[in-house]
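User: quick one, sequence for these tokens?
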């Protein structure tokens, strides 16, 4: 019966003269829900190759047009990210005030003063050129009204403001179907000097978006089981105690979760604690359009969380072979500049590369060029690269082979701490968590510092499911619950770092004037003791086995000079 009704609706819609239909830009509030007829108005010219973009900072880009009542506009032949046109417009005062009020409340701020606000309209596109337009209908008061409308999946407000002695930037997403706000990015920079810190500890983790799907436990249990998995993941994240975390497969799924609770970046930040990680940024890479429900909003991309101020963010859309079945999703590289006190600016790049080897190699070249634009003391690439160490692309990133006439000076953190040997223990593989067979998650860096430790964590399932059968995969009702289908690669504090930090403090602050010769000799002897103690522990660390291998991590010191 439903198929018959749908067929009748589509037949009626097909017979309607499109020029006579009212055209809507945005879906206005309705007494009854609108229904998609199945008829698409816009034409789609799928390109063979989607080229890489320049680095984009949506806070700095000028609006592509002024806001209009009857139409939307975008930069010609340009996308902001996968399936979303680059439509950046000016923001009205009332809309900016509403978005600002939400981020101020979310962060517990007061006395905020707005500087700028621009709006990214999430206007859908099938081909990166034309706005996706469809025919829908609504049936108020027993009469059916057909109309055509361009598909819009919400609004992202890009706000810059001052509050609490800090300069802030935030991205606030408005779900226009349920009129709820959620913060996707919040970074701040102190207007005064920061305190002395330690060398940065850095983690990469693919969080497996919002799995498990409904068919595993049933829709009624899915939220509870997802929350249980994320709680388990958060345990590993807290144990890693990283200063900077690069996430992949972070999702917004408007079909999943409570009203206003669809953004996974918030699920992660609530568990990590926004006091511990006050700076975070999420950037959608691909919006997944639903042919049956064009207004359904599901998207995915990378994110970065940091203990230290993120002073700048931008991103680069990576090229894509549109007709390659292994390269159907748009990919990007997210870049954040983190100001690590007493260390310097660190350029952090987070990405999740294609399943297509051809595309991966091309995008690796694009990322390498992107990293060379970094101006910090250190550039770090984090991510699920979907390639094994023996592949030509990874050999290129490790500085062992050339690609396209290019070579890198990147260092693989794992190899640096394990004698340039690839892992042979299955516990040191990163994918898949239930039956690990490969290392495809990486921390690669250049510049200041050297790797002290690099491990893999996230192996253990939840304690109450550890006895469940482990040969059924991760998508069965009786399978163990792992933190993710990937394991993490983060940094971890240890005695070496604390000794080195103390040693630096002694060298910096011993007042050699107005002290006796004996006091000077004693102080210098103490410095020598810490130096040799640090070196001795450093030689032991690579062979030390961890009892609870939970995350892969890398920590850095500054004893190695920067590479040319």
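Assistant:
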């Amino acid at each position: 019966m439903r198929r018959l009704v749908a067929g009748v609706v589509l037949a009626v819609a097909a017979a309607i003269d499109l020029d006579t239909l009212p055209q809507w830009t945005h879906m206005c509030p309705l007494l009854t829900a609108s229904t998609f007829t199945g008829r698409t108005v816009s034409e789609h010219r799928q390109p063979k190759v989607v080229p890489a973009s320049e680095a984009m900072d949506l806070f700095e880009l000028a609006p592509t047009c002024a806001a209009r009542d009857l139409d939307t506009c975008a930069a010609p032949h340009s996308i902001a990210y996968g399936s979303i046109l680059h439509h950046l417009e000016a923001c009205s005062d009332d809309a900016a005030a509403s978005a600002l009020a939400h981020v101020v409340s979310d962060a517990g701020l007061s006395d905020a003063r707005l500087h700028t606000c621009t709006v990214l309209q999430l206007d859908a596109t099938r081909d990166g050129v034309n706005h996706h337009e469809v025919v829908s209908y609504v049936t108020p008061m027993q009469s059916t009204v057909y109309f055509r409308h361009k598909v819009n999946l919400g609004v992202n407000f890009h706000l810059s403001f001052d509050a609490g002695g800090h300069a802030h930037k935030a991205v606030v997403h408005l779900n226009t179907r349920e009129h709820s706000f959620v913060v996707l990015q919040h970074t701040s920079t102190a207007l005064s000097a920061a305190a002395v810190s330690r060398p940065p500890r850095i983690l990469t983790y693919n969080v497996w978006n919002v799995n498990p799907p409904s068919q595993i436990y049933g829709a009624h249990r899915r939220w509870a089981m997802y929350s249980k998995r994320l709680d388990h993941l958060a345990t590993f994240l807290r144990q890693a105690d990283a200063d900077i975390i690069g996430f992949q497969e972070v999702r917004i799924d408007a079909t999943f979760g409570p009203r206003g609770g669809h953004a996974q970046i918030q699920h992660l930040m609530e568990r990590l604690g926004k006091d511990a990680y006050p700076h975070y940024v999420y950037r959608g890479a691909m919006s997944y359009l639903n042919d049956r429900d064009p207004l359904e909003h599901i998207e995915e991309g990378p994110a970065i969380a940091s203990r230290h101020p993120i002073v700048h963010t931008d991103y680069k859309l990576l090229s894509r072979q549109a007709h390659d079945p292994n390269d159907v999703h748009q990919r990007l590289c997210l870049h954040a500049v983190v100001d690590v006190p007493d260390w310097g600016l660190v350029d952090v790049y987070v990405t999740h590369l294609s399943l297509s080897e051809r595309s991966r190699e091309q995008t690796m070249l694009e990322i390498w060029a992107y990293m060379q634009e970094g101006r910090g003391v250190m550039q770090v690439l984090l991510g699920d690269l979907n390639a094994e160490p023996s592949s030509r692309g990874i050999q290129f990133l490790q500085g062992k082979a050339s690609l396209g006439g290019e070579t890198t000076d990147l260092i693989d953190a794992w190899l640096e701490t394990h004698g340039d040997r690839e892992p042979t223990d299955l516990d040191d593989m990163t994918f898949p968590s239930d039956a690990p067979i490969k290392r495809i998650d990486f921390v690669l860096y250049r510049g200041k510092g050297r790797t002290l430790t690099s491990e893999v964590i996230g192996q253990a399932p939840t304690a109450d499911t550890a006895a469940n059968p482990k040969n059924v995969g991760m998508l069965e009702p009786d399978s163990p619950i792992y933190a993710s289908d990937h394991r993490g690669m983060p940094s971890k504090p240890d005695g070496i770092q604390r000794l080195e930090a103390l040693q630096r403090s002694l060298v910096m602050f011993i007042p050699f004037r107005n002290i006796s010769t004996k006091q000077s000799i004693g102080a210098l002897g103490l410095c020598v003791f810490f130096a040799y103690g640090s070196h001795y522990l450093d030689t032991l660390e690579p062979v030390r086995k961890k009892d609870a291998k939970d995350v892969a991590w890398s920590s850095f010191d500054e004893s190695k000079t920067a590479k040319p």
